[in-house]
Design a protein that fits this description.
alpha+beta
Length: about 725
């Protein structure tokens, strides 16, 4: 995955003295890059061959466990290295606050003061991967021109070398991560003299040295006495692994924070039964020196110090859980949850496939799956009764996870389950419990036999809880989304009826925030040889506004059917809205069209003015007489305006969502709409409608958009 080796012709056997020698291309490039800009850690990612995923190839300066949540990164992931590869640009994050603002998923796992630069590794035509490097928190808030030039040039050279290796057919070979110096077994090797060793041994406080991996390379007698652990048990081990009462993620986090920020870090810890010790860490790029002494002001420190846990989790697991929790909060619908579980959780726990099961009508439902070569193997479980003797159903109904380390174990416990020759060898069935009730089952499948020790089972069960909360939220969102769209579709015309002498087209775009439902409406009504059209906007973007909109649309059709004039229709609708006792107002524009005589009579209630495009391409805003918004004054009148409607003319009726945008003057927006109408007005009406709403369809919208186009046909 990371070094270039010589290739050998098929059938040719190289002599022992001429074995291929791997060139650590990525490691050497990364080391030189970091040295050029004085960075203290970094990593190289390579693009996976058949999927939009960046895979960490080599890391330098820090243990790979620090970046465990990002061993595999989707190109769409909201983290710096993915953004750099995706946009083919340098991404600079100048500090802790900027990281929290722009990339919260990274900040929650690494809440330390540091700066980061991420760059793509790409040629003119091909993306090969990406690189990131970091500096301690003391780095300047901006990247210097020198640093930018060095990093950019290094990535460009690496891309060229990877391109040449690919063209030459040279395979990439694994390379070791670049960390600090190897373990040192005695003090004289560390300090360089026997006298220095004796001096440190005489110190009244404890002193020990940790390498970058957190392993103890030296401890003086005072340190072993304070820790109550012999030197032979300490050397070569991680401090929190050898000292039981330091086996707490909070203490390990201090070590991570010191290495990442390169700043002095301290903490106090309780040595059972009642002795408090003070630890002060002095970091460098090769490790840490730790000063240990008895804590002073114990009473104050005791209030702030964390208590030791009986069986704490490893910190790398906590960082992964934090990253996954942050990712799952971004999931909106059920398929988003499936995708995030596949992208974030599956790589972290080492499984090769997954299925997400839900329930509906007393039966299992397959909500989504990834990694199965044949989808039919999964879909055969869709519709199984919840009382069926299958591990997926029993995990869901009982709330108890099930772990199967081999196919034989699964078949022995569930001999009656449907056979699944899917090629997998081990499974974990995790019940998804949210708000005290089961919402589904997450099935993780492993290609090889896999043991599930107690700590791993605990972690997987905890991850199931995170997935359950995300799934519950996603199911509610999907249900709300379907309800909103169904209600909106029921309240608006399914299609526009044919009108005498008039062609019509309409578009409706719900706001992108909230429930995707609102109070904008439109309608056209044939009336003998004439036609009526209406467009309106009830205040609000919720079910109440949509329900009131449906009542107003029905009322307008009824008043039109009994032959009321435009001003009467508007006045009657106004009184109805007041009689309904609603505290919502509505704008409205009503037209009576007479294509045979080439005219249109309009009444307006606080609605944006329509546009008229004449056959010669000129566009004007119609200045119509009108009255107040509907629902304000029961005695209000609504005068009418008559407008000539020659064959080929186009009337554009719209709601304010089409022309109102934050920071944009409404007059400028209306003028822009007029220009687009003038340029595209000769298009077929449906194409014209798409053209006029294209910009709004691609943007985030606070408001709904309704558009109704009416074109007078040539007279026979």
């Amino acid at each position: 995955m990371v070094g270039v080796s010589e290739v050998q012709e098929p059938g040719q056997q190289a002599p022992a003295a001429r074995l291929p020698v791997g060139i650590p291309l990525l490691s050497l490039t990364l080391a030189a890059m970091m040295d050029d800009v004085h960075a203290h850690s970094g990593a190289v990612y390579l693009l996976a061959p058949d999927e939009p995923v960046l895979q960490m190839a080599v890391m330098a300066g820090l243990p790979r466990s620090f970046a465990a949540p990002w061993e595999r990164v989707g190109l769409a992931a909201p983290i710096p290295v993915a953004e750099a590869a995706r946009d083919r640009k340098l991404v600079w994050v100048g500090g802790e606050e900027e990281m929290a603002r722009r990339f919260p998923r990274v900040a929650v796992v690494l809440p330390y003061p540091f700066s980061l630069a991420a760059l793509p590794v790409a040629s003119e035509s091909t993306l090969y991967g990406a690189v990131f490097v970091t500096w301690p928190g003391g780095h300047a808030p901006e990247l210097s021109d020198r640093e930018r030039d060095h990093l950019t040039a290094s990535c460009r050279r690496l891309a060229t070398r990877l391109e040449r290796a690919a063209q030459s057919g040279l395979p990439l070979r694994p390379e070791p991560d670049l960390l600090a110096t190897p373990l040192i077994g005695n003090m004289s090797g560390t300090l360089g003299s026997v006298e220095a060793t004796r001096m440190v041994a005489r110190l009244p406080y404890g002193l020990c040295s940790l390498d970058v991996q957190g392993r103890v390379t030296f401890a003086n007698p005072a340190a072993t006495e304070l820790l109550e652990v012999s030197a032979d048990r300490l050397l070569g081990t991680q401090l929190w692994a050898s000292v039981p009462w330091l086996n707490d993620p909070v203490y390990e986090d201090r070590y991570r924070g010191a290495l990442f920020s390169q700043q002095v870090t301290s903490f106090v810890a309780l040595r059972p039964p009642a002795d408090w010790l003070s630890f002060r860490m002095y970091p460098s790029t090769t490790g840490l020196s730790v000063r240990i002494s008895r804590a002073r002001a114990v009473a104050e420190m005791a209030r702030a110090a964390p208590g030791p846990g009986d069986a704490p989790s490893r910190l790398v697991t906590i960082t992964q859980v934090l990253s996954m929790a942050g990712a799952l909060t971004e999931a909106v619908g059920v398929q988003d949850v499936v995708q995030l579980v596949a992208d974030e959780i599956a790589p972290a726990v080492g499984c090769q496939a997954l299925v997400l099961l839900g329930t509906r009508g007393g039966r299992l439902r397959v909500l989504g799956h990834r990694g199965y070569p044949d989808a039919h193997m999964v879909e055969q479980f869709d519709g199984l009764p919840l009382d069926s003797t299958t591990p997926g159903a029993q995990a869901l109904t009982s709330g108890v996870p099930a772990f199967f380390e081999s196919r034989e174990q699964l078949e022995r416990l569930y001999p009656a389950r449907p056979a699944t020759p899917d090629g997998f060898a081990s499974w974990a069935f995790l019940p998804l419990i949210a708000s005290g009730r089961p919402v589904g089952t997450c099935v993780l499948a492993y290609a090889e036999p896999h043991g599930f020790p107690a700590d791993e089972r605990a972690v997987l069960t905890s991850l199931g809880g995170l997935v359950a909360l995300a799934l519950e939220r996603a199911l509610l969102y999907d249900a709300k989304h379907q309800l909103a769209h169904g209600l909106q579709a029921a309240l608006l015309p399914h299609s526009l009826p044919p009108l005498p002498g008039i062609d019509a087209a309409a578009r409706y775009l719900p706001g992108t925030r909230g429930m995707d439902i609102g109070g904008d409406f439109y309608d056209v009504v044939p009336t003998g040889g004439q036609a009526a059209a209406v467009i309106g906007d009830v205040q609000g973007h919720n079910v109440t506004a949509a329900g009131l909109m449906g009542q107003l649309r029905t009322a307008v059709r009824a008043y039109t059917a009994v032959g009321q004039s435009p001003q009467e229709v508007m006045a009657s609708t106004n009184r109805l809205l007041i009689d309904l006792g609603s505290d919502l107002f509505a704008s409205c524009l009503y037209l009576r069209l007479d294509p045979a005589r080439g005219r249109a009579v309009m009444a307006r209630a606080g609605h944006p003015p329509p546009l008229l495009r004449r056959p010669d391409g000129r566009v004007r805003v119609l200045d119509l007489a009108g009255g107040p918004l509907l629902g304000i004054d029961g005695a209000a009148g609504y005068p009418t305006t008559e407008v000539a409607l020659t064959p080929g003319s186009v009337l554009v009726l719209y709601t304010d969502g089409l022309i109102e945008s934050p920071g944009v003057d409404i007059e400028d927006a209306l003028a822009d709409l007029g220009r687009r109408l003038a340029e595209a007005g000769d298009l077929p009406l449906d194409e014209l409608a798409d053209t006029l709403v294209r910009h709004e369809a691609a943007e985030e919208r606070d408001d709904d958009v309704a558009l109704l186009l009416l074109r007078a046909r040539e007279r026979d």
